[in-house]
Amino acid sequence: MVRRGTLLPLALLLAAAALTQMGGVSGQGRPVTESGAQTPPTPSSFTPKDSFLIDCGGTAPLNTSDGKSYKTDAQSNHLLSAKDAIRVADDKADVPSPLYATARVFKEEAVYSFPLAVPGWHFIRIYLFPLKGDGGGVDLATATFSVVTDDNVLLHSFTPEKDKAVMKEYLVNATENHLALKFQPLAGSAAFVNAIEVVNAPDELVADTALSVAPLAETSGLSREAYQVVYRLNVGGPAIGPANDTLGRRWDPDTPYVASPKDAVKDVSVPVGGIKFPDGTSRLVAPALVYASAAKMGDADVGSPSFNLTWKLDVDASFSYLVRLFFADIVSDATNDLYFDVYIDGRKAVSGLDLSTVAGGELAAAYYKDFVVNASSSEVAADKLTLQVGPMGQDTGRPDALLNGVEVLKVSNSVGSLDGEFGVDGRKADDGSGGRKAVAAVGFAMMFGAFAGLGAMVVKWYKRPQDWERRESFSSWLLPIHTGQSFTTGSKGGGYGSHKSGNTFSSTMGMGLGRFFSFAEIQAATQNFDDKAIIGVGGFGNVYVGEIDDGTKVAVKRGSAESEQGINEFNTEIQMLSKLRHRHLVSLIGYCDENQEMILVYEYMHNGVFRDHIYGKEGSLPALPWKQRLEICIGAARGLHYLHTGTAQGIIHRDVKTTNILLDDNFVAKVSDFGLSKDGPGMNQLHVSTAVKGSFGYLDPEYFRCQQLTDKSDVYSFGVVLLEALCARPPIDPQLPREQVSLAEWGMQWKRKGLIEKIMDPRLAGTVNPESLSKFAETAEKCLAEFGSDRISMGDVLWNLEYALQLQDANPPDNKDGGGDQDAAGSEGRASSAVLPPGGVNAVPDTSTTAAGELFQQLADMQGR
Ligand SMILES: *[C@@H]1O[C@H](CO)[C@@H](O)[C@H](O)[C@H]1NC(C)=O
Ligand SMILES: *[C@@H]1O[C@H](CO)[C@@H](O)[C@H](O)[C@H]1NC(C)=O
Ligand SMILES: *[C@@H]1O[C@H](CO)[C@@H](O)[C@H](O)[C@H]1NC(C)=O
Ligand SMILES: *[C@@H]1O[C@H](CO)[C@@H](O)[C@H](O)[C@H]1NC(C)=O
Ligand SMILES: *[C@@H]1O[C@H](CO)[C@@H](O)[C@H](O)[C@H]1NC(C)=O
């Protein structure tokens, strides 16, 4: 029950959000563990309590090939009050189902009254075909009539199309214990119906909230609306008949609606048994068959195409639509490798959808999301609803995108009509009739917070370590390259153990541990460790830039002989690192362990460290625009989220800072130096107890006090990174007045005053959307909470930042003049409050290694003031 994305009822959402924000337990990702373990599996079949199937005009019970049994008129006479008893039949009619071969005709209003066993959602299906024959003197092809319930207009002045059988399907929330279905012929005409179904549906089928696309906001009140099903598509797969859907629905193939070129779309499918339903995901909303097929990008496997898959659906522009998209990643080989954007009506509805994050960390797991599209929006106004999925730009993950299923439901208008602008009582819809009566925007963060957070927790539970005890001894050999204010304390290791030479690795090579380099190769690559090739200096030794093979640039980390930890841990490290593959983690290419050397070879990151691009290097680099800073933060958050949740044991980075976020040639952010990383806490522990390691200024105060490490320590450090990206100053600057020394404290003071823009990097002035800024600052605040349990998870951080980016994209300020590296004339506040010289100061020597003793002293000083 716990995570079902936007489809959680509002109350649950609120409760879940509260839990994420405040809950002591959520900090450890355990509540889902406990409640999740007791949740019975969601049912995969549904037996309706109300089921009225009537073959109108039929004289014998009818069983269709769909497996449904229809009653005759005689059997359902008690439901009908009508003056007429005209029936027509035509055995030779060319109809898709025998249901259409008979009909009931009414020349005056007729009412079917269904007593209901349960209130709530009910399907109403009306089958219509204008049979030839004597309809009481009326030609059914010219019959004109309306069909209404007590509250909703389903059909208004309907006239059938000649020789065309149609089934109209509605979904209404019945609040009474009966449901009336009225057939109202136009004066002098007649009404008819070939078959009727009234069947109740599970509550979860329509949630109260969804994401409105334009403007982007959460809307609620959906459970009070009535719906007409206009499209229900099994994308990339065949039609699914009522017999294969426990709710008796029909799913059509999507092919008639594909607007992309033919070879741009590729249909894929997997055996239906391979589809997983993460805890709490309903199996009823769509059958597994829908998730088991998808359309993906046709050329995605070759080259790097960038295009959208596009579907165009005809709609009536005077209504709003509830669009439900179904996804299951049945195309990826690994999790966290596929990110794509979803557009509805030309607007970005989801940015960088990462199915492995939202669908319980598994491939082929069912996930769906609801959107509301406003009737008066531009594209719909042209009577076309456009759905698009396309790869996220920016070289993020495998360029591909997919869609498994679509439902499009027309939403009743302000007077409860689904056809025409008049309500049951004759009231006319107010202008912009598509408008809905009770759409209230509620906190967006709440939704994202709750579902991303809970999702992440579920992931964590699934990924909990099975072998924690064995792994507990894992600790790192590698120290950060840009060691900055890093320091390390800890027990002295026993120096080098007995050295194992290359052939030890020949056995491990086969396990995918990356490439083995000979010492000679490394020497050649780095010009024999030329000082000029040094790009970083760390406690363990130097980092060199080098070239291997064909001129591929690499970063080479060489452990110095004084390094304390032994070869076993070096081996563990390699095994560990080589398992971590992610777009937003710097990847290990190989290693060298010859001649008692401990050398690791990494991919080279052309644009260096993030810090240099926001401040530092005396501002010699152009200032990054806000959007790019956001994208870098999002990339880093993805990398960290993967560390926390994407691996079996869950890894805590322990040294998150702007110098450990590296940028490649395209400014894609990659997290480096998981050297201090530690496996996350196991099942039996809430935290990892360990000597304090990390970087001054980024250190989680709780970790420092209790020496207990959780993934929330990384979240705290990341909060500091966010403030650095915003304010362009170091996390600790001892030269500043006391209250400004610590960026975390100072930033939060301004945030609490609601004046965060006063301390923003002046070079950003005029380029930042205020809502984006406020979302960003709020995210930083939630990261920097005093207690780990109050902090949001990395998954939440990610969603919040993505939302900040969407806000920026949706409405970038017009005034671009203050941007770039231009003069900061436009900056208000910050200059006048004279809090910081522009460009920032980098007063803390970047190469100093702070001993723990000094650190305690510094912290004591800071706390004392
Ligand atoms: C229709 O199916 C029901 C059970 O589903 C069965 O009891 C009934 O005999 C069938 N009727 C006909 C006419 O086949
Ligand atoms: C039906 O609507 C009522 C309010 O009109 C609401 O309280 C109830 O929760 C809805 N039922 C479902 C299943 O959404
Ligand atoms: C639907 O179910 C029938 C049997 O009930 C089966 O033969 C058919 O293959 C199923 N359709 C699909 C698309 O799986
Ligand atoms: C995909 O569609 C959206 C909205 O229509 C558009 O903004 C975007 O540029 C498209 N992407 C590509 C690669 O064409
Ligand atoms: C639809 O959009 C129009 C203008 O953009 C707005 O006035 C109206 O409130 C919106 N309706 C809904 C239901 O969101």
UniProtKB/TrEMBL annotation:
Location(s), subcellular: Membrane
Domain Protein kinase: 529-804
Gene Ontology MF term list: ATP binding; protein serine/threonine kinase activity; transmembrane receptor protein tyrosine kinase activity
Keyword Transmembrane helix on entry: yes
Protein name as annotated: Protein kinase domain-containing protein
Keywords: ATP-binding, Glycoprotein, Kinase, Membrane, Nucleotide-binding, Serine/threonine-protein kinase, Signal, Transferase, Transmembrane, Transmembrane helix
Segment forming the signal sequence: 1-27
InterPro entries, per database record: ANXUR1/2-like, Kinase-like_dom_sf, Malectin-like_Carb-bd_dom, Prot_kinase_dom, Protein_kinase_ATP_BS, Ser-Thr/Tyr_kinase_cat_dom, Ser/Thr_kinase_AS
Membrane topology recorded in Swiss-Prot or TrEMBL: Single-pass type I membrane protein
Cellular component terms per the entry's GO annotation: plasma membrane; plasmodesma
Top-level division of the source organism's lineage: Eukaryota
Annotated stretches, region: Disordered: 25-45, 809-853
Binding site for ATP: K557
Composition bias, Polar residues: 35-45
